[in-house]
Design goal:
single chain, 255 residues, two-stranded antiparallel ribbon, 5% strand
């Protein structure tokens, strides 16, 4: 339980259980607290089916339980802002990536799209039926996986073929802009000071994006120093694998 998609998997797995009052996620410590009535056997069985190496830490009685109220509208507004930023840089990076012949930028754009899919799942599936949520997850997962596969095929083609060396200036400039965009997202998420699990998970995702941006910037510098296409292709390969891994996690949501 270390990313937004896994949290979504757990929420969807338990969504139709009427004896659950509240779920409290602690992603950094990989712990989930379930406030429920009746026994916990069915809850534990469903969690165990996810193959997350589930173990019961403790089961205690809670008196005078009061479900926490959240500023849902404010969090939705924040997630819409972060989603808009990610979608903008997805379009910018994939466009300039093809223009500059940089697979690193194209891969980074798909990483932005992967984040957008996770945020979109959380926003568009709110209040929907279980079938609707699963269909959204399945469509998004297959779409993301298809993009990752085509990206890896293109990387292989460029490795064995004769390709123009990527425009390192574009790689560096666009990646710096994307870095600023992710920095803005991180600022907005931290400014909210929300302790909710999905908000904390979004910060983890955005922090990882910052690392990817830095990787593309470094690759652009190495393209300049070595006058070679390989640094760009290596970074692109790594990011495409990350995107593909995220797609498989999202597809688990539809099961």
């Amino acid at each position: 339980m270390d990313c937004p998609s896994e949290e979504q998997m757990i929420r969807m797995k338990l969504a139709d259980l009427t004896n659950i009052n509240s779920l409290d996620f602690d992603i950094p410590n990989r712990q989930l607290t379930v406030f429920h009535t009746d026994n916990h056997d069915q809850i534990f069985q469903r969690l165990d089916n996810l193959k997350f190496d589930t173990s019961l830490i403790n089961s205690v009685s809670v008196n005078n339980f009061t479900e926490k109220t959240n500023s849902v509208d404010q969090e939705k507004k924040l997630l819409w802002q972060v989603l808009a930023i990610n979608l903008f840089f997805f379009v910018l990076e994939i466009t300039t990536g093809f223009i500059s012949n940089s697979m690193g930028l194209v891969a980074d754009s798909l990483d932005m799209l992967a984040d957008s899919i996770v945020y979109g799942l959380a926003l568009f599936a709110v209040g929907g039926t279980m079938t609707r949520k699963k269909n959204i997850a399945k469509s998004a997962g297959y779409f993301q996986l298809t993009l990752a596969v085509f990206g890896l095929i293109e990387v292989v083609r460029r490795f064995v073929g004769t390709e123009t060396i990527p425009a390192f200036q574009t790689m560096i400039i666009i990646s710096i802009l994307a870095l600023i965009g992710n920095g803005l997202c991180l600022y907005l998420l931290q400014k909210s000071k929300s302790k909710e699990a999905h908000m904390q998970a979004s910060m983890i995702f955005t922090s990882n994006d910052v690392i990817v941006n830095l990787g593309v910037i470094v690759a652009g510098g190495l393209v300049y120093l070595t006058n070679s296409k390989y640094p760009d292709l290596i970074v692109g390969t790594i990011v495409f694998f990350i995107v593909g891994q995220g797609a498989f996690k999202i597809l688990k949501l539809s099961k």
